[in-house]
């Protein structure tokens, strides 16, 4: 299977060129990155959906192969088809299983590569470009793409873990069948130990991925809060810049009132003096 070409490497040298841009240029650059992220999103969703369908096929094939490994099933098939058709069926099923395994490995590599490219695009290019434009809708778009990436990664990890569990169960069944055929020795203890260690490592990786995802979410929220605080600081600076004008207006009003008080006081004094002069003059 040929993987679709990715466009994540087309803008590797564009992250440094966004510095020193005007808001209009930064918006145009963000639109280019958004289109690229949309292509990666569709590619990732398509690959994850195909991987889930492939996992269902692997489940059916694993169940059929398990029935082929059953001695009773082999005896019944030999009783029904005595012309050697059971051996050809087993060979065909093994060939199909090998093809499915190769397709699963190719899809898994393609999904990992797409997730890595999309993560790099969002964290190193889109997020700085969104902060540079200063538009809230751009920050929301970055958050949306991160949520899409997280959801697709969670679906892929869940499906991949289910496929791994089916394979481990198949390996354990094969070991038990081989041990019973060799004289009732049971499953291979070394294989069981390796499987237990692998399960422990997988659980540790899941826990680490969960912590990293939570840290990324907290980092995004902190950046959003920082942008909000910077906006509040700009508003307070504008208000502080207008305060000197308000103080000047208040001083003018105070001076005007003082002038009015002087005029009224002068008129009252003149009236009193005129009254005294008229009465005693």
UniProtKB/TrEMBL annotation:
InterPro entries according to UniProt: Golgi_SNAP_su1
Q: Which domain of life is it from?
A: Eukaryota
Q: Which GO terms describe its molecular function?
A: SNAP receptor activity
Q: Which Pfam families match?
A: V-SNARE_C
Task: Enumerate the Gene Ontology biological process terms.
Answer: endoplasmic reticulum to Golgi vesicle-mediated transport; inter-Golgi cisterna vesicle-mediated transport; protein transport; vesicle fusion
Record's keyword terms, sorted: Golgi apparatus, Membrane, Protein transport, Transmembrane, Transmembrane helix, Transport
**Per the record, where are the segments of Polar residues compositional bias?**
59-75
Compositionally biased spans, kind Low complexity: 76-98
Disordered: annotated span: 1-28, 59-104
Membrane spanning stretches: 263-280
KW Transport (keyword) present:
yes
- Family label: Belongs to the GOSR1 family.
**This protein's name:** Golgi SNAP receptor complex member 1
Question: Which lineage?
Answer: Eukaryota, Sar, Stramenopiles, Ochrophyta, Bacillariophyta
